[in-house]
Amino acid sequence: MNVGGQSLEFILVKFPSLELSESLLRNSLKRREFVTVAGNCECRYTGRASSHLGWGERLILIKGDGSIQVHRPKGYEPVNWQPPQCNFYVHRSGGLLFIEAHRRRPRESLTLNFDRIIFYSSFKPVDNAEFNLYVSEEQMRDALIRDPSILEDGLELVDFERKVEPGFIDFYGRDADGRLVIVELKRSQAGKEAILQLKRYVDAVLKITGQNVRGVLAAPRLKSGAQGLLVELGLEFRRLTPRKCAEVLKKSGTRKISEFI
Length: 261
Hints:
Elements: E1 2-3, E2 6-7, E3 11-14, H1 18-30, E4 34-46, E5 50-62, E6 68-71, E7 80-82, E8 87-93, E9 96-103, E10 108-123, H2 137-146, E11 156-164, E12 167-174, E13 180-185, H3 192-209, E14 213-219, H4 226-233, E15 236-239, H5 242-252
Parallel strand pairs: 13-14, 14-15
Antiparallel strand pairs: 1-2, 3-10, 4-5, 4-10, 5-6, 6-7, 8-9, 9-10, 11-12, 12-13
């Protein structure tokens, strides 16, 4: 098959014998191909813990980076998996086909025993696209609430969306030294308007509390000339990207914001 001027070898075999499946697997693993195997199997894991999954029809994904996933008919997460750089061993014994995935550090292994293969496919996909993740400013704020350390170690949340005379403060907190910190968030490059808005927030809080207040502008980057204005007004810049915020949100799952305050 020729796709985009490149030759693409794609193998698909329905109900292959265990002997043929062993041969196909050995060749595909040697070539670091993307392998999909559907079959009736049993799974055993040993390592930092241990687990056993009895017989059932499952889908196995083996990627060229040496990772493996075992999927059941329901749910999007694999029931068993091993990360990249596994060493694979394929063999037959006692009328079964064995796929073993081993890691040295930490020492652990995943063994799959097949008595029947429903289908086998393999090919070597090409994918060099850049992954762009889109996160709103509100979601960036939620990520900072969940984990203030992504901006600064020792930073703690006091309040968010606090109303002051100029508007609403995205993040109102205290640093490791107990100083009040006002954070203005921007999901793209920040310029003069964001800096002046932050300055108005800082002045308003200073007037109310009479305490030393730090103003921090958090954004992926600054517009040209913005750094000079920040220094002139005694404000700070911290780089915070939508991608980093998305990672925090993914880890924290669906927990409510109220759990963090």
